[in-house]
Amino acid sequence: IFSAVAPNAAMRPLTEEEMTTFFEKLAKYIGRNIRHLLDRKDGNYCFRLQKDRVYYASETLVRKAQSVPKENLAAFGTCFGKFTRTRKFRLEITALDYLARYALYKIWIRPAGVMSYLYGNNVLKAHLGRITENTPKHHGVVFFSMSDTPLGFGVSAYTTKECRKLESTAIIAFHQADVGQYIRDEDALSAYQS
């Protein structure tokens, strides 16, 4: 996590407080699998903070990014999320590949419910295809299509047992982010790239 790479003014390692906040949020989705992000066979990886956003990158990429002046460096590596003004951490959809790979709890959405979810709606019992056994209430879940394509992530509203007893119109999981955001936020993203 802490590496020998010296931070420049544009990026820096996370402080103890920031790291605790970040890892607590990440642990709600992937638990102890966080270690797989850091203990990799293909090199040393770390988390860095730039403009209140947390990036995950190889130390080689971080060294290269440090040679870029801070006003010219837009991003590097994979953005996992950002710290709000109140110093809470929000995961972003760009972390989905890693969340999907190491998720503890998963929900598969039926084809009829995929579009509804991708428009930013919560997941209803009628759209539930499968759910990981022993999913706890109010815990981070990753949503998949029935063909195992990651769609987004959110928070479970009920346990697995409770979901079985609900009406079809009940909300079983709350939406937080989905891949449809790339299209819905296209104007904001294109303005950022200009």
UniProtKB/TrEMBL annotation:
What InterPro entries does this protein's entry cite? Answer: NIP7_N, Nip7_N_euk, PUA, PUA-like_sf, PUA_sf, Ribosomal_synth_fac_NIP7, UPF0113_PUA
Q: Single GO cellular component annotation?
A: nucleolus
Indicate yes or no for the key word Ribonucleoprotein. no
Classification via SMART domains: PUA (SM00359)
Q: Which GO terms describe its biological process?
A: ribosome assembly
User: What does UniProt give as the signal peptide span?
Assistant: none
Q: Which UniProt keywords apply?
A: Nucleus, Ribosome biogenesis, RNA-binding
Q: Which family does it belong to?
A: Belongs to the NIP7 family.
Descriptive protein name: PUA domain-containing protein
This chain's source organism reads Lotharella globosa
